Amino acid sequence: RPQVETLFAGSHVTLVPQSSRDTAMSVMTAAIACSGTITTQLASWGVPTVVVYRVSPLTYFAAKRLFLQRYVSLVNISADLNTPGGSDPLMPEYLQKAAFGDEPIDALSQFIVGGDAVEGLRERLKQETRHMGVGSEKASDKAAEAILKRIA
């Protein structure tokens, strides 16, 4: 944590302690996050989120051949599985080198500007996480089941 605080000292970035996470998410306009549990948590609050993710080149190469999903975030995977014919991502994803380009910032800027499309996205994110069972004790089981159905 001290390294992160030093990195963002003097910037417009607000670091939030874990104990205040839900309060912070309830008032967020938009977010940029690494793929993982946090993207599902942000979606459950209806926070438009840009997903970035980078792994070693060898891991990425292996994952592309073994993992048959079009997306890396569970929210996008769930939406894709639950939409006939598939779904465009609810959260734009930028992987590997693309995570460090201009595209994630451009996508985040669109969320910050807002408008009717972003308001609709907020509701779709909340709806998808309800469908996933977020908040219930079986959310992880439902996500795993959906993924296993897809790869079977």
Q: Summarize this, please?
A:
The chain is mainly α. It has helices spanning 2-8, 21-26, 37-44, 57-66, 74-81, 103-113, 116-132, 139-151, and strands at 31-34, 49-53, 93-95. α5 packs across α8 (139-151).
Which spans of ≥5 residues are poorly predicted at pLDDT below 50? none
Gross geometry: globular
**What is the count of DSSP helices, taking H or I runs of 4+ residues?**
8
Order of helices and strands: HHEHEHHEHHH
Overall strand count: 3
Give the oligomer, counting copies of the same chain as homo and different chains as hetero: single chain
Which structural class is indicated by helix and strand composition? Answer: mainly alpha
Helix residue percentage: 40-55%
Strand order of the largest sheet: 1-2-3
Major β-sheet annotation: 3 strands, parallel
How much is the radius of gyration in Å?
16 Å
Name the beta content range. Answer: 5-15%
End-to-end gap? 41 Å
**Average pLDDT value?**
84
